[in-house]
Design brief:
The protein is mainly beta and 128 residues long. 0% of the residues lie in helices and 45% in strands. It is globular, with a radius of gyration of 14 Å.
Length: 128
Amino acid sequence: QVQLVESGGGLVPAGGSLRLSCVASGRTFSRNDMGWFRQAPGKEREFVAFISWNIGRTYYADSVRGRFTISRDNANNTVYLQMRGLKPEDTANYYCAAGAPGITTGPYYSNSRTYRYWGQGTQVTVSS
């Protein structure tokens, strides 16, 4: 069982930056693919970023590529999402997700059903 706790959200003006953190419990973090998703009011949950457990491969949604950076610190069971150049349309609740240990998500990294564990989310609000 993996428990995920996000933090780092808040209110920021357009153009600002935030760094989200997600701390995982359990002993399998180094073998979990990790993803960030977000959900705005009235919209479906959408993929934001992914980092693999084995070689640290990363993928991003087109809407955030070049502005957001995902990284992981296996020694501290933490995955980060550095967000720069924030826009009002980035406003959402941001969720951290973990895949099953030792399993690569392959081409399904952007599908929320790929992930087994989810955090409770942290709210990011970008004012215009």
